[in-house]
């Protein structure tokens, strides 16, 4: 069996020397398009991260993969979000999961976008405090993310993204979304 694609986490490592802001924005734009397509089909992925996207060697297109945690989010007839469940188990990858996932809140499109946001920050070379050490527990990561969200200017946008207004605008938009809301993909 031939490998037809390479995941974006590996692509980024391979491009380390030639990695530019322009390349990052192009990749991130393609990733967002893939997430939007999943959402438009009525599903949420629940494990958005760079290694769950692949770059096709032939077409140079980016695809989202690994739907093992995916869940139907929109009713097939009404296209409205399914009722929010009261309590759910954690789903996703700790480093990229939304605070809703950490708080066992039913996930929605906004939570895929939070995971995308953390991936975006990583691609833009922002140092995310909870990714500094591999041995943080799930509760430690939750606490660090909570602290970072309380004061993002001093805790979240401290390096490469400090002067990128769009990064802050995207954060504010995602933070304003409720369970049933559809993200503004064009703003993101």
Task: Give short descriptive properties of this protein.
single chain, 188 residues, mainly alpha, Transferase(Phosphotransferase), domain 1, two-stranded antiparallel ribbon, 40% helix, 7% strand
Shape estimate: globular
Q: How would you spell out the order of helices and strands? A: EHHEEEEHHHHH
What is the gyration radius calculated from CA atoms? 16 Å
**Looking at CATH, which topology would you report?**
Transferase(Phosphotransferase), domain 1
Question: How many helical stretches?
Answer: 7
Rounded to the nearest angstrom, the distance between the terminal CA atoms is: 37 Å
Level of helix content?
A: 25-40%
Uncertain stretches = none
What is the strand arrangement across the widest sheet? 1-3-4
Portion of residues in beta strands equals 5-15%
Structural class: mainly alpha
Describe the main β-sheet briefly.
Answer: 3 strands, antiparallel
Mean pLDDT: 92
Concise account of the structure shown:
The protein is 40% helix and 7% strand. By secondary structure, the protein is mainly α.
How does this structure look, described?
There is one protein chain. This protein is mostly helical and 188 residues long. The chain has one domain (5-73, 85-176): Transferase(Phosphotransferase) domain 1 (Transferase(Phosphotransferase), domain 1), CATH 1.10.510. Helices cover 40% and strands 7% of the residues. The chain contains 7 helices and 5 strands. The protein has helices at 8-14, 21-40, 99-102, 109-123, 138-150, 152-155, 165-176, and strands at residues 5-7, 43-44, 53-56, 62-64, 71-72. The strands form 2 sheets. Strands 1-3-4 form a 3-stranded antiparallel sheet. The chain has a two-stranded antiparallel sheet with strand order 2-5. Strand 3 and strand 4 form a beta hairpin. Helix 2 (21-40) runs antiparallel to helix 4 (109-123) and helix 4 (109-123) packs antiparallel against helix 7 (165-176). The longest helix has 20 residues, at 21-40. The termini are far apart.
